[in-house]
């Protein structure tokens, strides 16, 4: 519930009809902290009340109309004066006049389109909010209530594995394989690395998850890379013929779905970066883009069970293949 005082005569607040039961989620603010907000999905109705409470009953409050807006907007930090609104809905709650006693005004935005996920990044912010306004002669009185929107996806129909090679002629030849190319935000990345030729002394090897945020167009394009996770694969020298398994749990990291060309303003992409460091501190790396997506809440399976299914499937066991398909049916059902 949000209060805003104008003068000493009244207070205004916005209350959602389902505030008691609607789920709240943490979302990062511009200063890097996390606050909790009401969670909505695309197509859901947003309804509630705008309460105008007079501090001095009997003393009138003149206004030029009362309204509420539902807004979805993108703000580029290098262009803060311009807010790009992709959703803008308005409901007039009261015509110009005066209020002589406290009043409540019902509002409802039915089946609101919310096409993009809420996002706060290095150079851009995509947000949704309700804004109640009492229009007055000198100063409009406004109060905003922010909400968070999550976009849900279904299981990708095509989800092929990733197979790549890293090589330095006559020195190093590595093959690495990840079990798929598209992962949901609570997924497990399962893979293997094969050392086919090793003639340089490798002392350290890791996989990084890199988030790349791209904003702007043409000459005004900004790229911001952020290393979200570092996963040590090995510490020490591998030998020819060695195979090293990878199992990386995504649930513990601050990830968003992949976002491509959102309203022609920004993109957020994720990459797996394989890094090798030799004894002379030289770095060798290979990068591969992966797609991240958000699935709806389902009955949570244990992480070890989830990893076992992914690992068995990766090994190509026929029995585990059917088990995985059954698990997928249960989750999507």
TrEMBL record:
Belongs to the VPS26 family. The keyword Hydrolase does not apply. It comes from the Eukaryota. It comes from Oryzias javanicus. It holds the Pfam family Vps26. Keywords: Protein transport, Transport. This is Vacuolar protein sorting-associated protein 26B. The keyword Protein transport applies. InterPro entries: Arrestin-like_C, Vps26-related. One of its GO terms (biological process) is intracellular protein transport. PANTHER family: VACUOLAR PROTEIN SORTING 26 RELATED.
């Amino acid at each position: 519930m949000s209060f805003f005082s104008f003068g000493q005569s009244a207070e205004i607040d916005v209350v959602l009809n389902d505030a008691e039961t609607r789920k709240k989620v943490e979302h990062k603010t511009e200063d890097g902290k996390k606050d909790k907000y009401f969670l909505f999905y695309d197509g859901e109705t947003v309804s509630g009340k705008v309460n105008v409470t007079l501090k001095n009953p009997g003393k009138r409050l003149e206004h030029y109309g009362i309204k509420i807006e539902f807004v979805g907007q993108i703000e580029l930090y290098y262009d803060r004066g311009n807010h790009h609104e992709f959703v803008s809905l308005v409901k007039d709650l009261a015509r110009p006049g005066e209020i002589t006693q406290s009043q409540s005004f019902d509002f409802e935005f039915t089946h609101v389109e919310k096409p993009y996920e809420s996002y706060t990044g290095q150079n851009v912010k995509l947000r949704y909010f309700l804004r109640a306004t009492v229009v007055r002669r000198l100063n409009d009185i406004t109060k905003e209530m922010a909400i968070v929107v999550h976009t849900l996806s279904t299981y990708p129909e095509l989800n092929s594995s990733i197979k790549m090679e890293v090589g330095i002629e006559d020195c190093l030849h590595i093959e690495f394989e990840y079990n798929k190319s598209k992962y949901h935000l609570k997924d497990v990345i399962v893979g293997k690395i094969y050392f086919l030729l090793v003639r340089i002394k490798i002392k350290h090897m890791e996989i990084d998850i890199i988030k790349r945020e791209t904003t702007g167009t043409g000459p005004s394009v900004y790229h911001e890379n952020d290393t979200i996770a570092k996963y040590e694969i090995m510490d020490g020298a591998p030998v020819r013929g060695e195979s090293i398994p990878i199992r990386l749990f995504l649930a513990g990291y601050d990830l968003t779905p992949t976002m491509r060309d959102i309203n022609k303003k920004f993109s957020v992409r994720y990459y797996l970066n394989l890094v090798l460091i030799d004894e002379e501190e030289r770095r060798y790396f290979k990068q591969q883009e992966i797609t991240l997506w958000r699935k709806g809440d389902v009955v949570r399976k244990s992480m070890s069970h989830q990893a076992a299914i992914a690992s068995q499937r990766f090994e190509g066991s026929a029995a585990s293949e059917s088990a995985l398909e059954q698990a997928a049916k249960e989750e999507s059902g």
